[in-house]
Amino acid sequence: MDLRAAKAQLRAEMKARRAEVSADAHAQAAAQAAQVLLSLPQWRCARIVCLYASFKHELGTHALLQQALGEGRVLLLPRSRPDGTLSLHEVSDLSALTASHLGILEPTPGAPIRPATEVDLFLVPGLAFDAAGHRLGYGAGFYDRLLTQAKATAFTVGYGFDFQVHPEVPVEAHDQALHAIVTPAGLVPTVSR
User: pTM value?
Assistant: First the structure.
């Protein structure tokens, strides 16, 4: 099987598995994963965090967004741009988020933009992750492009259900590896970073 077909197959498998998670199990998993992330020293030391608003069947991030604001951290959320990149916008009020053309909650265009080089911790969505830090996203490359701009000391962490940690994720040269993966079961440190 070629790389493109392998990625498509794994994407379909992970989307189907996420859709099977009941609402109760999803809420419990999101609460457990949030506790794992919030206990990390990298979180405690981070002043500026780039999170994302979970979408469809992604592991929920709403409590993390609220926690970041409640702790006085600078919260940045991505906004997709027509050129295939993400801009990072400072958010101080979650009720001000608006749905993108894909239905993902994003900051308004007028929210203050901050450079990726200021971010201390990036929470990165994905469909599958592996112990080498590889991540399978949705295929548009938004986060791979964003993470090339991160400062060397930024902590990059994937966020997903336990079953999203896969033995091996197909990778290409442009794919950016992560430092760790957070799941409801705990932290999965990676070996490639």
Answer: 0.94
Identify the residue whose tokens are 């080498």. Answer: 132
For residue 173, the enclosing domain spans 3-189
Tokens 């929210």, residue located = 111
Q: How far is CA 114 from the centre of its chain?
A: 18
Q: What percent of the chain has pLDDT over 90?
A: 78
Check pLDDT > 80 for residue 193: no
Q: Are 182 and 159 in contact (CB under 8 A)?
A: yes
Contact 75, 68 (CB under 8 A): yes
- Count how many residues are written for the chain: 193
Look-up: residue for tokens 């590896």?
A: 177
Residues 6+ apart with CB under 8 A from 19: 57
C-alpha 144/C-alpha 121 separation (Å) is 15
Provide the token pair at 64: 């993390």
Give me the residue label for tokens 């996203």: 137
CATH number at residue 16: 3.40.50.10420
